[in-house]
Every structure is written in C-alpha cells, then in structure tokens.
Design a protein that fits this description.
The protein is elongated and about 85 Å long. The chain has helices spanning 9-31, 34-50, 54-58, 63-68, 71-85, and strands spanning 92-95, 99-105, 112-127, 130-143, 146-151. Strands 1, 2, 3, 4 and 5 form a 5-stranded antiparallel β-sheet that branches. With 155 residues, it is α+β, with helices and mostly antiparallel strands. It contains 5 helices and 5 strands. The protein is 43% helix and 30% strand.
Amino acid sequence: MSRRFAPAKPLIYISLLLIVMVVFLLIKGSLFSPGSQALAVVDEFYRYEQEGEFSKSWSLFHSAMQEKFSKDNYIQDRAHVFMSHFGVETFTYKLGKPEKLEKWKMSESGKEHKNIFKVSVTQTYKSKYGTLKLNQEVYLIKEKEKWKIAWDYNH
C-alpha cells in the first residue's frame, strides 16, 4: 500500500493571506501617513488656485491665515495680482516631499505649533513678462483634526 501525502494547502493559504495583509498594511501606511495626508492638502490647495477657485483654496487656510486675509480680499488679490498683472490664466506647480518639523511659528510673535509639515512648492507662470517661477514653503498645521495651510511671515 502506498502513502499519499496531502498537499500543504492550509499552509500555502495562510502564507498568501499573510503576504497580502503585509502588502495592504504597507500601502495603507504610505497612503494614509500624516505626511501623505498633508501633501494631499497642499495639492488640493494649488489645484483650486490653478482653477481660479480662490474661495475654496482660502477655506484650506489655518485660522491664523484666515485672520490675516479676509476671504473677499484674498479672492480679489489673488485674481488681480496673479491673473491680471501677470497676464496668465493658470500655472503649473510641483510639490516637494513633506518634511516633518517638531515646532514652527508662522511669525516671530505668533503661536508655536508642534508636529507640523513643510512642503516646498514651485509654481511656474507663462506670463506676458516671460516664464516666472515662484518658490514658496508651505506649512501644514493640524487644526480640528484636519491639515491646514499656513505661510511663513518670519521676515
């Protein structure tokens, strides 16, 4: 009588399941990490700016930025300066990698914020004055569980 060995199907299935779970957790960790979430807010902000949706981009500002610029003034200034003065309808932009900072202040006399991200942004305008590039550091501060945009005023 010959013996037949049963295949190790349960072991194979368990191994495959573990591999799938590890891959899922790695992808989830990279897509939903705080840095990725912060970067997504910066991307959303500049997409709104590209489309001239300044009301929507203003809504992504941290409350300190909203105090600095009233909504109406921000919408008017952005449209006037960047679109009318430069003679452009839109622009392109590139985002750098998010850099985690332990602490940062929007201005010398401002409140110190902890655990924030900094993202370098380069906007390129094809204007009546030629190609213009604007480089800016954007800071992301968690406010009411959402990442919000702030700019540096430490002159």
